[in-house]
């Protein structure tokens, strides 16, 4: 009985580990880190093979199947949580302030975000559009700053696949 409990726990932990690794591996591939992703994939599949072989060879133990499925579900959650915390890479924020005359660009710059202001034409005439490239780990602080200074601003945030040149301020080092 103790052996069955131990194997049930090990199957769950193996799936938790390999699925979390798979989630991070997918993100690494998307971010262009193929070498690290391939290295991670080697260990990910070894853990998966060990877990699946135990379940497949003993299908009469329903609790192994449940542990396998719970490990998979939990691994998806943990992997996405870890990816969010690691927050590697950059994103692009497109902001249209709610008021035409605003010092929002200066406030964002004061908080360490590089802002390029572009004049655009909207439904109600001239609009100012702020283009900001920022580290993904700074997204929460960026949104907090934006919300505190212009609750009605329109914004979108998108992942950046490639980044070259330009000027990036180090927002994570600035605490205001």
TrEMBL record:
Superkingdom of source: Archaea
A Pfam cross-reference name: DUF2179
DUF5698 domain mapped to chain residues: 23-79
Residues passing through the membrane, by range: 36-56, 62-79
Gene Ontology annotations for the cellular component aspect, listed alphabetically: plasma membrane
Subcellular location: Cell membrane
Family annotation (InterPro entries): DUF2179 (IPR019264), DUF5698 (IPR044035), UPF0316 (IPR022930)
Keywords: Cell membrane, Membrane, Transmembrane, Transmembrane helix
Membrane topology: Multi-pass membrane protein
The protein's name: Uncharacterized protein
Species assigned in the record: Hadarchaeum yellowstonense
